[in-house]
Amino acid sequence: MALDTIVAAIAAEAGAEAERITSEAEERVAAILSEARRRADDEQAHWEGSRAEETSLAVSGIVNRARLEADRKVADAREALFQDALKRLADRIRHMVDGTDYPGILRALHTEAMVVVPDPDATILVRPADRGIAERVARERGLNGTVQGVLECIGGLDIEAADGRSVRNTLDSRLLLAERRLRRLAVQLIPEMSSAESEA
User: Fold this and answer.
1) Inter-residue long-range contacts of 118-121, CB under 8 Å, 24+ positions, other chains counted
2) Separation CA 126–CA 43 (nearest Å)
3) 18 near 192, Cβ under 8 Å?
4) In 10 A of CB 36, how many CB atoms?
5) 101 close to 133: Cβ distance less than 8 angstroms
6) Chain centroid to CA 120: how far?
7) How far is it, in rounded angstroms, from Cα 151 to Cα 21?
């Protein structure tokens, strides 16, 4: 199952969370700006006897600091939303690994890895739970290398050739490599993920 498909499947679920985070961020921004205005009024009263330019600069400084703080909190909320979506995606992938489609996925990952390291004597590294499947794949393909169940990952495999070449094709590494593309996809699927900068 393609990562895009999995991400699309969690979009509706993440949408409610996006609305909650966006609403919470908007409330924080409103509270910060309200506090900034109050502080600005206090500063204006304090500087009332001073020159108008000094008062204006003081007020502008307070408002600008408040806006920067609000922007930072909104950015933090967006990043929290994306990280939550990534966690949900990883959970979905873990669930998929427990399903009946996983042996076929492992075969496909092995085929891809063998294109990069086409060594029939290469060592296949997998999770302990995947050792049996990987040994069957190796036998079916007439490979001579050993299979070691030593990886700690969601699923997938690594291949190491005797000459030092290797390829990492675990689901974890694929997810990590896809993170930038997933971030762009998340912005398309969940408009609340887009920042003011990306909208400009």
Assistant:
1) 119/145, 119/159, 119/161, 119/162, 119/163, 119/165, 120/144, 120/145, 121/145, 121/161, 121/162
2) 64
3) yes
4) 19
5) no
6) 35
7) 36
Contacts of 52 (CB under 8 A, 6+ apart): none
Place of tokens 């887009």: 194
Among the listed residues 29, 101, 97, 103, the one whose alpha carbon sits nearest the alpha carbon of residue 67: 29
Residue at 101: amino acid letter: D
Q: With beta carbons less than 8 A apart as the criterion, state whether 148 and 123 touch.
A: yes
Q: What is the pLDDT along the chain (200 residues), one digit of tens a residue?
A: 455 555 555 555 555 555 666 666 667 667 776 777 777 777 666 665 555 666 677 777 787 887 888 778 877 877 887 888 788 888 888 888 888 989 999 999 999 999 999 999 999 999 999 999 999 999 999 999 999 999 999 999 999 998 999 999 999 998 888 888 877 776 776 665 555 444 43
Token pair, residue 26, equals 């908007």
Question: Can you list the positions of beta strands (E) in 65-177?
Answer: 123-126, 147-149, 156-160, 166-170
Q: Read off the tokens for 112.
A: 């891809």
